[in-house]
Amino acid sequence: MAEWIYFLHPPQTDFAETMTEHEGEVFGEHFTHLQKLLADGVLVLAGPTLGPTNTGITVFEAPDEDAARAIMESDPAIARGVVTGELRPFRVSLLRGRE
Questions:
Q1: Average pLDDT, integer, range 74-91
Q2: Integer Cα distance of 6 and 40 in angstroms
Q3: 67 CB burial (10 A radius; 0-12, 13-18, 19+)
Q4: Spatial separation of the C-alpha atoms in residues 34 and 94, rounded to whole Å
Q5: Which residues make Cβ contacts (< 8 Å) with residue 41, sequence separation at least 6?
Q6: pTM for this entry
Q7: Bridge partner residues of 60 (DSSP)
Q8: What is the pLDDT of residues 5-23, one digit of tens each?
């Protein structure tokens, strides 16, 4: 299974501290969505960068680019226009617990 990464680019700096109530609700849906991907064995890891630039990263598995794009575009934060997504092929070269 191929590995992919998508970045979630927020609309402004300090997004985590300045998001509106609506954006916060959408990010609640985003978190639930990622929990489901994790439970389904699709998600490898996810989280935001800290500091003034809160770029989110999601590393996951998908068989091809079309499937990977569909997963990224189903993320509520992207689908509802709160952030923009950027998809790239990725390789997990080293990961604790993986040989």
A1: 98
A2: 18
A3: middle
A4: 22
A5: 61
A6: 0.94
A7: 4, 43
A8: 999 999 999 999 999 999 9
Contact at 8 Å (CB) between 87 and 69? Answer: yes
How many other CB atoms are there within 10 angstroms of residue 8's CB atom?
23
Question: Mean pLDDT in the chain?
Answer: 96
Are 17 and 23 contacting, i.e. CB atoms less than 8 angstroms apart? no
pLDDT of residue 97: 84
Contact (Cβ atoms closer than 8 angstroms) between residue 34 and residue 43: yes
Assign 3-class secondary structure to the chain: CEEEEEEEECCCCCHHHHCCHHHHHHHHHHHHHHHHHHHCCCEEEEEECCCCCCCEEEEEEECCHHHHHHHHHCCHHHHCCCCEEEEEEECCCCCCCCC
How many residues make up the chain in this entry? 99
Mean pLDDT of 72-84: 98
Q: Identify the residue whose tokens are 């091809």.
A: 64
Residues forming beta bridges with residue 47, ordered by sequence position = 57
